[in-house]
UniProtKB/TrEMBL annotation:
One of its GO terms (molecular function) is ATP-dependent protein folding chaperone. PANTHER family: HEAT SHOCK PROTEIN 90 FAMILY MEMBER. CDD domains: HATPase_Hsp90-like. Keywords: ATP-binding, Chaperone, Cytoplasm, Nucleotide-binding, Stress response. This is Chaperone protein HtpG. The gene is htpG. ATP binds at E32, N36, D77, M82, S97, G98, T169, R339. Belongs to the heat shock protein 90 family. Coiled coil: none annotated. Transmembrane segments: none annotated.
Length: 628
């Protein structure tokens, strides 16, 4: 048997296109060829189950080997094999895949779709690294003859009589000069570990050394010896392919460590398993997120029938769920011909919505089942939940029932509970509830204490996205405003009908303002003399809530906030006209003395917020010593 011909394609330039554009990463040639071998193996197993093949299956492991001297890589399987006619049909006609015919033939068979490869041009990825590719194959069909196909990367091919004696296919790649890096054991091992770690058919690659027990010595201690054993790359039945009822917590934790060896144990996990209206399995883990969410991305791995595809899953998983870790496996996620890029379609959107719902349901279940345990986890998962509520309205609707707010005394409340708590004391004269929050408990301690002294409660909002979460809450909650506790003096954080009168005359207030303006001598600070409680500080420095919040959002990447981020800081200096220190300023003998006292009061206010540094701090310390 001998035949020569040309591959049925519509352009002479197909191979350069394949090499340069079709596949984004040349290492995936091994993924494609091993995946095809697995498909062929699963098909023969399925035919045997259906009674369409009655021969012995034998060892069905797929074997990968290489010969550095001959510069070859070989992928061998004991799957369906092909006849010469099938080679011409499935290999030479580039755009045709045998999967459709197989589906049609066994469309009524249970789970048939799970074993159909949708790999299209996957075989031709071999020419990314090889000058010549050989297929040596023997079909499972009774009376079939072995056939060999050879192609040198042009559109010409040759089919001759093959040498294979057992069912299956052997593909040999003669590696080109530019790709000799792949003729390395550790390079190939790394690629197989990446893409084939969970394939459903055993993948063998050379041997490895293991220590086995070899009796005991004279002291009755175990003896060990080293032996060479077959090196199997993969776990053929990873936990996401199993029923949750058959798994223990230890199984989930062990699998997590297998995926992320250096990570802390996850907080909890969700086992995904749905077969309608799409097929999806997987396990998503909730890591200890805390404040490092930017470093936690791209930890979800996407598989298709246990073949690793990518860890870039942003088209499938909502943005906020990119903080999770784990595995998603779906044959229904459409991929381009190289399976390296996702295509958005209806199924992807359905999967996206399903995962969002499952995550929300799991969090709601944990909250209802054991609130105390949920509160203990909140500091780790709060960032994730808030991120979800900001970015997905559907998640917000569910999340508002299990999102927690934490106050400065360590108590936790749902949003509704907290609204009820503060309404009696923190409603202003316009019947608007005012929720106070702090971002730095140490730096804002004085403001927190002033608020507490007035009977106000203060929340802790110190995560990287809380400035955005605050905006989100204000847009969702009716007649509610959030203010940072240092946005104004305590008297004015929540505007009430009752106010303190300024005991200074108009002329005295004007004089005090002029003295402080001279003492401060900085246009960044706007001085105002106000009537406040004598118990408040003589000078309080604040940044107006709106401007500070816009600057914070700009700093964390808030869309459209860049303008505010470029503006200089601007502070309000509130002078308490009812404080004895202000009276002392007015009664000082000379203008120099007045400015000195004013400067000392202002620097104290700066010091309380950590704004006094460098030479100004040194001068303050020296001045304080002189005043003792």
């Amino acid at each position: 048997m001998q035949e020569k011909g040309t591959i049925s394609i519509h352009t002479e330039n197909i191979f350069p296109i394949i090499k340069k554009f079709l596949y984004s990463d040349n290492e995936i040639f091994l993924r494609e060829l091993v995946s095809n071998a697995v498909d062929a193996t699963q098909k023969i197993k399925r035919l045997a189950t259906l009674g369409q093949y009655t021969g012995e299956l034998g060892d069905t492991a797929v074997e990968v080997s290489f010969d550095a001297e001959k510069k070859t890589i070989t992928i061998s399987d004991r799957g369906l094999g092909m006849t010469a006619e099938e080679i011409k049909k499935y290999i030479n006609q580039v755009a045709f895949s045998g999967a459709e015919e197989f589906v049609e033939k066994f469309k009524d068979a249970k789970d048939a779709n799970e074993i159909i490869g949708k790999f299209g041009l996957g075989f031709y990825s071999a020419f990314m690294v090889a000058d010549t590719v050989e297929i040596n194959t023997l079909s499972y069909q009774e009376g079939a003859e072995s056939a060999k196909w050879t192609c040198d990367g042009s559109t010409s091919f040759e089919i001759t009589e093959g040498t294979r004696q057992e069912r299956g296919t052997e593909i040999t790649l003669h590696i080109n000069k530019d790709s000799e890096e792949f003729l390395d054991k550790w390079k190939l091992q790394g690629i197989l570990d990446k893409y084939a770690k969970f394939l459903p058919v055993p993948i063998k690659f050379g041997t490895k050394t293991e220590s086995i027990e070899d009796g005991v010595d004279e002291k009755d201690e175990k003896k060990w010896k080293s032996v060479e054993v077959d090196n199997f790359i993969n776990t053929t039945a990873p936990i996401w392919t199993k029923s949750p009822s058959d798994l223990t917590d230890e199984d989930y934790l062990k699998f997590y460590k297998e995926l992320y060896p250096m990570s802390e144990d996850p907080l909890f996990w969700i086992h995904l398993n749905v077969d309608y209206p799409f097929n999806l399995t997987g396990v998503l883990y909730f890591p200890k997120v805390k404040n490092e969410f930017e470093l936690q991305r791209n930890k979800i791995k996407l598989y298709s029938r246990q073949v690793f595809i990518t860890d870039e899953v942003k088209d499938i998983v909502p943005e906020f769920l990119m903080l999770l870790h784990g595995v998603i496996d779906s044959p229904d996620i459409p991929l381009n011909v190289s399976r390296s890029f996702l295509q958005a379609d209806g199924n992807v959107k359905k999967i996206n919505s399903y995962i969002t719902k499952k995550v929300a349901d799991k969090l709601g279940e944990l909250y209802k089942k054991d609130r105390k345990a949920y509160e203990e986890k909140w500091d780790d998962i709060g960032l994730f939940v808030k991120y979800g509520m900001i970015s997905e309205d559907k998640f917000y609707e569910k999340g508002k029932d299990f999102a927690l707010l934490k106050n400065t005394t360590g108590e936790y409340f749902t949003i509704e509970e907290y609204q009820s708590k503060v309404k009696p004391t923190q409603t202003d004269k316009n019947d608007q509830a005012v929720i106070l929050y702090a971002t730095d408990l140490e730096k804002q301690d004085g403001f927190i204490q002033s608020a507490n002294n007035k009977g106000y409660d203060v929340l802790v909002m110190n995560s990287p996205i809380d400035s955005h979460f605050i905006q989100n809450l204000e847009s969702k909650l009716e007649k509610t405003q959030l203010k940072r506790v240092d946005a104004d003096v305590a008297e004015k954080l929540i505007q009430k009908d009752e106010t303190y009168a300024n005991l200074l005359t108009e002329d005295q207030s004007k004089e005090v303002k002029e003295i402080f303006d001279k003492a401060i001598n900085n246009k960044t600070y706007t001085v105002e003399v106000e009537g406040l409680s004598p118990e408040e500080l003589p000078v309080t420095i604040t940044m107006e809530e709106f401007m500070r919040r816009m600057k914070e959002m700009a700093a964390t990447g808030g869309g459209g906030m860049g303008f505010y981020g470029s503006l200089p800081d601007a502070y309000k200096v509130a002078i308490n006209g009812n404080h004895p220190a202000v009276d002392k300023v007015l009664k000082a003998a000379t203008e120099e003395e007045k400015i000195k006292i004013a400067k000392q009061s202002f620097d104290l206010a700066l010091l309380s917020q950590g704004l006094l540094t460098g030479k100004d701090l040194t001068a303050f310390v020296k001045r304080s010593v002189e005043l003792l």
